[in-house]
Amino acid sequence: MSKYLFYTGNTGFPFGHAQVERQKLIAKGLTLMDCRVTVLNTYGVHRPGTHSETFSQDQYDGIRFIYSSGTPYRSSSFLKRNLLKAKGTLNAVRVLYLHRRKKQLDAMLVTCNSVFTVMFYGIIGWLLRVPVVIDVVEYRGATKIPKSLFKKMDHYLYDRWYHLFVKKIICISDFLLNVAKRNKIKRPLIKIPSIVDYSLFDNIKAEPANTPFYLYCGSTHYFEIILFIIESFEKLNDNSRNLCLVLHGDSQRIQKVKELISQGSRKDAVIVMSNLPYEKLVSLYKSAYALLIPLRNTFQDIARFPHKVGEYCAAGRPIISTNIGEVGSFFRDMDTAMLAESYDEGQFEAKMRTLSTNSQLADTMGNKSYLLGKNNFDYIYLGKQVYRFIFDQK
Length: 394
Prior knowledge:
6-stranded parallel sheet; 2 domains; 8-stranded mixed sheet; Rossmann fold; alpha/beta
């Protein structure tokens, strides 16, 4: 007998960055278990007119989705935008109530960044007698993105109170699991790490590069890490390798990165790209000599599990990172990845240099990371675990 689940809390589905991709793949894995998933977005965030073909339908890759505000697009009018948010919030209650009455709502899975959103769905779940499960992907108080006083308070409360409104908790990392245990949270817990669709990666071909290149893909929120990579690459001073940076986020920061590159010693060897179609990005991953993702020894980086790690594994190319957080838990230096012991430019550059001089090691390591990811991060395997956890199946 099919189970019915509403996936709520986030908005933007099916287009967005790491959180939407995780949402998409968990939902896709659940559908393989004959779970009828509906992704509920309360308001639109997309630029008017974009993705019109997708939004003319109510399913994406077999996953049903709803915008309860009535539109997936973000209005340029402040008043209209906030009226749509209010409409979407009220209509979400109506949608959930009607589906519960029709016996088409067995559980809610929430992914969000706000304690007030968790509280909202927790109360609805309590009223409708529907279990609410949360997917926790960050230690919100540790994020270094500039915040208002309200946001700081929201994130502080989220880290400490989110469990009060849910029945079960999914954590992306051991750090978040241990925080929950240390706070004596009496809720069932499970760890679901980075998640990736291996079948998609397997069907996209690499494009041979004239000059072998290192690749980093990430948000301008991690500006410090972008500079770290550029400086490590310049220290390497290897004229046989280029560096490709695929950046998304603040256009002014991307321009600042380009300006800093133009002043550097390897300016002709560093390429900056953005707004790539996903298939093109995957092809670049698979074409790279090595894939870079240094993590810092901060609560933020220890708590999270970058979505890119799973994607890098699926690309089958070697990963260069630091022995910190979840990367340090899953990977082994000089075997499944190159891991600098700390977040240090000299150590990171040394790992790049070791790999640069040994292409056979690079290929072998890429194959090993592919298998590690296939066994631990594939959405088919993780989808089964999430389904059994939510619905108490063995």
